[in-house]
Amino acid sequence: MRCEWCEENKARAISCTVYWELPDGSRAIEITDAPGFVCDSCGMEYQEEQLINDIEDQLLLINVKLVEKSITFKELMAKPKTLKRNYFRF
Any signal peptide, and if so, which residues (predicted)? Predict the structure, then answer.
């Protein structure tokens, strides 16, 4: 796969841990087992833009007070939504 950073064809899919600040800025959480990529050429670990948008949307749509300090990606995405959609994204 082509790396989004160095553009070499040495990126591969991984499962990783990421840290995210909640939309209200009250705290950060650890999200484990998140899909991502690592490049064997430049060493960069990253998430695709769509996944970043999906996480940010989910954090806007759920009650973040119920989110644990550490949560798996699947658990986060399975949390029930209190809003239908992110009305700030056009």
Answer: none
